Amino acid sequence: MTSPTPRPAPAESAADAAPERITVLIADDQPLVRRGLSLVLLSDPAIEVVGEVGDGEQAVAAAHELRPDVVLMDIRMPVLDGVRATERLTAELPRCRVLALSTFDMDEHVVGALRAGAAGFLPKDVSPEELVAALRTVHRGEAVVAPRLLTRLLATFVTPPPTSRPPVSELSGLTPREVEVLRLIATGLDNAEIARQMEIGVQTVKNHATGIFTKLGVRDRAQAVIAAYETGLVRAGQGNRAP
Question: Is 74 helix (H, G, I), strand (E, B) or coil?
Fold first, then answer.
């Protein structure tokens, strides 16, 4: 009697595969905050904290040495603040993603950090789960800013051009469809909501968004929203939804 041929073990599914390892550098001028963030992240085996520094100058130097995937960057620091440090990092180490942190959600320096190339922003009172999720998101190359918070920030701290000057010249490279998608992005809608409003597919919205980013020379959704406000395509209170 022959033994049954053993069945090969089922291949590990993508969902069962271990999450990709993420290396993180923490930059904050308060030692207690640095230690707290580090302890939160150490609870996730897929995240490795490779360093902690106390100002923006040290953050840039350490990032060059350690090459982290993501820098958790406090916006307000001595020597070199988080905005200028972010600007240097995105120029010198474009593969390094910056996730900005601030004690206050309505902080004008957040807009500066996003302009400088930060991949997202979190207030420091977020939950550990939100922090880890945000790190994973920016590591994938996406932006992390709650749309309604971003529109509030821009409405408060970005000065649009005079109403007499239309945004046509700055956005002339966009198709009419892309302009409409940009406007809806800037008013706080996600891709699914835009698809429903425009009666098109979600993938079509994503394709339009990619074209918008390329034509405007922006890195992500957050910078595209800033461009929409700076050109006057969207203004404070114009269709923005409550947070």
Answer: strand
- Cα 156 to chain centroid, rounded: 19
Q: What is the pTM of this model?
A: 0.70
What are the pLDDT digits (tens) for 24-69? 999 999 999 999 999 999 989 999 999 999 999 999 999 999 999 9
Helix (H) or strand (E) holding 154: helix 147-157
Taking the C-alpha atoms of residue 120 and residue 142, their distance in angstroms, rounded to an integer, is 8
**59: closest CA among 76, 49, 71, 47?**
71
Which long-range CB contacts under 8 A does 29-38 form with residues at least 24 apart? 29/54, 29/55, 29/74, 29/76, 29/77, 29/78, 30/74, 33/74, 33/124, 37/72, 37/131
d(CA 39, CA 52): 12
Question: Quick one: tokens of 134?
Answer: 């945000």
Whether residue 14 is predicted with pLDDT greater than 50 in this model: the reply is: no
Closest CA to 115 of 139, 147, 90, 95: 90
Task: Collect all residues with Cβ–Cβ distance below 8 Å to 32 and sequence separation of at least 6.
Answer: none
